[in-house]
Structures are given as C-alpha cells and as structure tokens.
C-alpha cells in the first residue's frame, strides 16, 4: 500500500483493551509521542524564550511572529515525521481525541498517548527552564482587546484546520501519494496559523503545548482553560463520513 | 498511474450537466473547496490583521512582507494538499477558470467551485472579524505611485506564474513524480510573488482572496475590480497545447 | 524508471545538430526555460525592488536578506519544478554550461537554452520596470570592503554548490528517490547562499539573473563581468566522473 | 526497497578494515562528506558574518535568528540531500558517531568521515575569510547568564533531537516513504532548534560547525569544548533497539 506510514488501526470508535498498556507496541508508540512532543515543544517554546531574551521581554513584533511560526512549523513537521511510523505522529491531544472520535485509535491507547504528550511538554519546559539559566517558560496569553470568546472561536477555527489537515493528508485511506508530504503539511498549517493567531491568542492549537509552560511557570489564568478546550476537533469529522 | 491525486476529468471545454449539482461527488468537492479556501484565507488575511495589530497599523515593511509571504505560501500549500484528492485543489477562481478553458473541468462544476471559494473567503473574514474583537479585514490596496495599469500588469504576470505552476505540476498528464510536490510548488510561488508584489498591488492573484475582505469591510474601490480581473489565466494555455 | 523527470539525454560532450532548432521538442524546451526564468527573476528581482520601495532605498538589513532569500529560494524551486519535465529545469546559464561540460546537453540545445534564459530575465525586468511605475531594476553590486577578487571567489564557491546540487539530485542516474525533492534542493541552496553572499556580492550564482537587471537599468560596472564569469561550473565535474 | 538512498551497511558495531581507506567507495564517500560540509558551513557561517557586516556587529536579534535558522536549515537539507546516495549524508561528526554506536558505520569509515567533515568546515571558513575581505569567522559563544552547564544541557537536548531525526527518517529500515523527505526533516530540525538555542548557546549541534570557525579565528574558549562534547548521540539509541 503506497504512502501508508501512518498507523490507522481502527475505523470506528473503540474502547480498546487495558492489556494494550502491556503491549510493547503501545508502550513504544507512547514513548515516540513523548519524545516527539518533547522535541517539538523544546524548539517552539524555546523560540519564544529566545525572543524574550534578545528583546528584553519586548512586546511581540512581526519578526517575533515569523520566528515563532518557523520554529513551530518546522519543529512540528519533524516531530510528526519521526513518530509517524511508530505512533501515527499525533504530537497533540486534540489530534488524538479527533482520531478517537473518528474511530482511528482506541480509548486506552488514546489516553496513553495524551499522558505521554503532556509529559513530553512538561519535561521540555523543565529542560528549557534549566538550560536557559532559569528563565520563565512563558504561558499563553490573550492579546489586548481580545475577549475569551474571541479567543475561543479563534482557536476553534485554527485547530479545525489542523485536524482537518491530519485527516486529509495522513488518515484518509484514499490519500494516495499526498501522504508522502503529510508531515510537512501538518507542521506548516500550524506555522501559517501562528502568523495570524499568534498576536491574538498565542495560537496554541494544542493542549499539550499550553499545558507544559503553564505548569512549569505555574500560571493558571482562564486563558489556559480557553485554549485547552477550544479544540475544533469535533467539527472535523465531516471528512471521515 | 503514479502521482494522480489531482482530479483531471476532462481534456476539452465542456458545459457539464446541471445534474452534477445533485451528485454527491460534486457537492463533496465544493465543500472541500469551501473549507480549503476558508483555512487559507483565515491564515493569510489573519496574518495581515496581526501585522496591523502588532505595529499599530504601521506602513508595510520587509518583515511584514516576509510574514505575509510565509502565511500565504504555507497556507495555500496546505489548502491545496487537503483538497487535491477530492476537488483537485483549486482554492482560487482564477485557477478554476483556467482549468475550465483548458478543458479540465466542466462549466457547471466550475461555477459550483467558484461559489464555494467565494463563500469560504467571506466566512473566513467574518470569523476573523469576530475573533479579533472586531478588527477591520483590510482590503487590498495599491502602493504609492502605482497606477491601475501598473497593478493590472503586475497581477497578470503573477497570476500567470501561478496558473502555469498548477498546469505544469498538477494537471499535466506527463508530470510524473513532480506531482508529489505539486501542492508545495503551488503554495510557494504565491509566497515568492508576495515578496515582490505585496508592496505594489497587495499580490492577490486570487479573486476569492480579494473578495472576502472587500465584502466584509465593504471597501469597493477600483482596486478590487483591477485585481479581480487581472487574471493571467488565458495566457497559460500554451502549456495545454 | 523512478524519479526520472529531468531530461538527461547525453552522457558525453556533444555538438548536437543545428536541425534541433527546428525540432518541436527543442523549441518547447527553450520556451519552458524562457517562462521559468521569467517567473523566477520576476519574483526575485521584484522582491529587491519591493525592499527598496518599502524602506526608501535603505541599506540592506537582515530582514531584507531574509526576504531576498525566501523570494529567490521559493521562486527557483518553482521555476525548476515547472520546467523539469520539458527542458530539464536549468533556469541558469551556469547550469546549462555545467551540464554541457558533463555531456548532458548538446552544444546547440545549450545555446538555445541560454538565449531563452537571458531573454526571460530581460522580459521579467521590463515587466517589473513597467508594473512598478518605472522603478529601477537594481543591478548587483559589491558590498563595502569587498574587492573584485573576493567577490569572484565568493561567487565561485556558491555557484559550485548550486551546480553540485543539480548534479547530485537531478542528473545523477543513481539519484533514486532523492530526485523527487530535487527542485526543492536546487531552489533552497540558492536561498541559503543568499543569506551568506547577499551582503557581499549580491549572490547571483546565475548570469541570467545578473544580465536582465544590468541591461534594463543599463548598469555595466565591472561587477557584472565578475559575477557573470565567476561560475564554479567547471569544478563541479568531479561528480560526473 | 523503496526510499533506500541512505547507505546503511551494518547493523552492529564494527571496527571495519583499514583497507577501506584504499577502497574507491570509501574515498568517494569521504569526498562527498567534505564537499557537503563545506557547502553547509559556507552558507551557515557566512550568514552569521553577513549579519555582523550589515548590522555593524550588533547583538543578535529575532531577525538575525531567523536568518541563521533559514541559512542552516536549508543548507543542511541540501548538504544531506546531495551526499545521501554516496556517503549516507552525515555532514556531522555527532551523527557519524551516533551511527557508529548504532552499528551503522564501521570505525575506520567513521574516522574517515569525521576527518573529511572537519576539513570541509575549515576550508569553508578559510574561503569565507578570504572572500569577505578578511572578516572574522566568529566562533560560537554563550549568551549572557548562560552557564557552561546550562549550555551543555541545551546542546544535549538539541543534538539528541537531531540524531533521533536521522535515525527515524533515514536509518530505520522500516521508515518507508518517509525517507523521501528525510533530508528536509534533518535540515529543518536544526533550523527550528536554532530559533530556540541560537540566543543561548549558538545552537551548534555539530562539532564540525564549531571547529572550523574556532580554528580559523583561533578562538579556543571553554565554549568550544562544551559544544564539542555536548553531543546527545548516545541517548538516541533507544530507536535502534
């Protein structure tokens, strides 16, 4: 089967089996999700900390958005590429949940993935905190004049675009050779969206990306809740019909 | 047939059949065009609004052009990639019209696509307007000392390059494996052209991209007309000879 | 044969036959070179003119180099991709000459290509001159404290890297699947080199790219000669041994 | 075997044979490593010297990081692509050592590669020194408030990500079609990491990249030692289990 390097085990919602925790495949897949999320968050969150260091915590700027977009876009592309063969390359609880709803991953394996993703993000932020000499892992925040509802809709549209891209290029069994460039597409839609949403909501599109910096800097404003829940994943299921 | 993930149904101009509106394939393809254009315009137009927000509506700058080029280049690449298997990945009335002239899409299906593209752009701008807390979806404008005729020629050359790229990498039956990277090429020629034309004409190359912001901000200067009509598509047919 | 979308007609130096001028394949290939060079130079040279317009002819800056690198890198990638199937995607007299020395193109066809490339660059600059309202198509210039010999070596190293990339990814019969991403590699090595050489020599690596702006602005300093001759092509033949 | 353009000769640690030095394959592979590293370091280090020239040795900035990330990301992608078929595309002593530990290259061939890589970096810096009219090839340095231990951990995490990417996309025999885009992934993870680490440690991830500028500018601070040793390669072996 050409281009079939994404795991697509199921085609309908399934609970899975708690024995999966003991299967080597599930553990290796969770490890792959852990390392991929770690590598992605290290580059992405680290680029934000580098911006703060270089500019003395200046407000965001077009150059800063470009740096953030490139760091997250390239980092996510690589994170998806290096785990695609092992875990399917989710690197994002929103993607895992969307694929669960679409019947492409079982409940137990999905929970395992999400725990691994959250852990990977936390470890990446701890490593950043240490290796930058104790700089703050800045949590996501809303721009001026952006209400919680504005941000909620913004994140829904962006996450919808991301999960749609995952379905269309990686999961769809009719995807054909477009699957070869699927990791690039998945990374680059995040890069493109950051150039729009970065100035308004921080453009997380990924609860794990929000969770790590929030935990390590212990910043629990309402923003975290908004960005964590504003996942457009349930809208993306028109594709799997 | 390798790399055949772009729909190439016809090889000569055809009227099509009004029954196509009722076929599930045509409706699904129009939906794909709608969502792809929405995702593309949301990232592209949103990046311009982010620039205006971060700089306090400052004049454009090299950093701003880079941000616009990356947002549109990556966004269009993804938009083409996620609809290539379903609708052929046009995401642009100029492309649809060019493919109609080349006999690659019927008249009825083409009209359906163009309506979907325009709607996708309008909905993206409405979502941006709401989720940014009511910021203006700035319409395209000409640079200083750029006449309407200058802009007309500029847009013709850029749109010609775009439609040529679509023909050479996605439609040409002899394209071979270059088709695998066709969505990247289609997106990136727009990114490259924005770095040239963005300072002079706004570098639309896409009537849908011009239409959404113009409607939502209700700005109908002559620029819209120029950019809407300056489509080099009819020049691109040397390829299909 | 996998990935064989680059024409590789010969494997040793050949004069060719003047009848080739009358063959439809040679004429179509020359037309493809003309349009590809036009599209590439329009985006690349246009990005420099946009920088001058936006900054009021300010000296170059890191942002300006980034814009130039992206415009040339993406533009050349697309220009190679859209002509690879027809002409082999040279878009550069240095590449054509290097492939002639390596026996991959006949003398007559090579001359035809180079004429088409120079014409494409000139037409692109004329179109830019008109559509920007008469702005100067700025010719390449040396940075401060950079002598002609410095620039000569700089251009040799960069052009060597470019022609090497063409050989290794597109021409080498053992290239395998790397050929699928060859147009990306060819474009991106130019993008990377511009970030180094753009501040010192202008980073042409391409006599056609130097010739068009020099002719249209009628600027014939010694720089043109240096950059036109500093082609590392004859060094690149270790690959074809 | 699809996508098999990376040499993967062995699957366990091996000493190799000193006769390999006399084999044409080993010599050609070492030459490929030499030229690839030369091309990569020329673009990457040259972009840093261009930044210093354009800004008058200003402190680093977000624009400077973006330029460095693009130059190194694109340059390494191309350097890997053009040597993948011949030498496996290491371009990095850390990668060569990691592949030796994983049993994918013999000791003698690995030493040959590392010598070629160091030489390529030195020659690139000498060429840069000459062709820029004698500018300093600035060696890597630590950011303010970054201790040697901070930098050590930073480089370990980044190099781990790089070597992991090499294993997952290029070496893994189960990589499938992801191998087609492996050179892009390998280059782009370095680009992403530079946007994070460039402000703190210089983000070398590559002893050869550190060695050339240090030798040519004769700057031997403790930084060189830290960056040279902080290679996370030995951590990356979970993949080859």
Number of domains of chain A: 1
Helical fraction of chain A equals: 55-70%
Give the radius of gyration of chain A. Answer: 17 Å
Highest CATH level, the class of chain A: Mainly Alpha
Order of helices and strands of chain A: HHHHHHHH
Largest interface: A-B, 49 and 48 residues
Q: The biggest beta sheet of chain A, please?
A: none
CATH architecture of chain A, by name, is Up-down Bundle
Distance between the termini of chain A: 22 Å
* Tally of contiguous helical segments of chain A: 8
Give the number of DSSP strands of chain A: 0
**Which superfamily, in CATH terms, is the homologous superfamily of chain A?**
Glycerol uptake facilitator protein
List unreliable stretches of 5+ residues of chain A. Answer: 1-5, 7-12, 234-241
Give the overall form of chain A.
Answer: globular
User: Any idea of the CATH topology of chain A?
Assistant: Glycerol uptake facilitator protein
Q: What is the SS-derived class of chain A?
A: mainly alpha
Oligomer: homotetramer
The whole-number mean of residue pLDDT values of chain A reads 83
Strand content of chain A: under 5%
Protein name (chains A, B, C, D): Aquaporin TIP1-1
Family (chains A, B, C, D): Belongs to the MIP/aquaporin (TC 1.A.8) family. TIP (TC 1.A.8.10) subfamily.
Pfam family, one (chains A, B, C, D): MIP
Transmembrane segments (chains A, B, C, D): 25-44, 64-86, 107-130, 142-166, 178-200
